[in-house]
């Protein structure tokens, strides 16, 4: 190999490590988390010890819970995440999955995944889908059955069922723990100081109160 080519290859491999950083590479075939040791009840399974492989079975690599939609929320959205908590075989492999169903006219509010790019396949229905880049440019279109769309890591994206029947989509993530932050809840449901929100959004205290009641997640509502 010519010295020039070697230098180029070295530079490329250095670049690809720094620019395409994702979950760490596996150092063994698989690592079924030994949840006996999950004393702090974390959902981050990658730091648990692995099960002895003699105790691992095919079922550790199969999840059957996405054959049909999950429970629909009051916003007409149902999501079933598939990650090491329900598909242990995914642990340490740097990926995860989701099934989402959307009732007619309903939507998945703008949100982002801090740790993963997502590629979404439309299984059925017509879904207006898009994301916003860091210059505030929107890339959005109606995606139809059989099409895929990619949402780059960390960018805000959204979906709305614009078809005439329930839409079903499958999403795939390049992290076993992509994380999710929903913009409305991040802003109005997290407890950011009211005065700051009034100034940032030009809203009155009464309007802020309205937004809070709407977006504070139910589990922390008293
Ligand atoms: C795994 O289990 C087998 C069978 O019980 C045992 O022989 C082996 O020592 C165990 N391996 C480890 C690393 O504990
Ligand atoms: C839907 O709700 C029922 C009752 O609360 C629950 O048992 C079931 O596990 C839920 N299904 C999913 C996919 O979350």
UniProtKB/TrEMBL annotation:
Organism: Camellia sinensis (Tea plant)
Gene3D superfamilies named among the record's database cross-references: Jelly Rolls
Protein name, per record: Germin-like protein
Signal peptide: 1-21
Organism placement in taxonomy: Eukaryota, Viridiplantae, Streptophyta, Embryophyta, Tracheophyta
Superkingdom of the organism of origin: Eukaryota
Keyword Signal belongs to the record: yes
Subunit structure, interactors included: Monomer. In the absence of manganese, it forms tetrameric and pentameric forms which show superoxide dismutase activity.
Subcellular location(s) of the protein: Secreted, Extracellular space, Apoplast
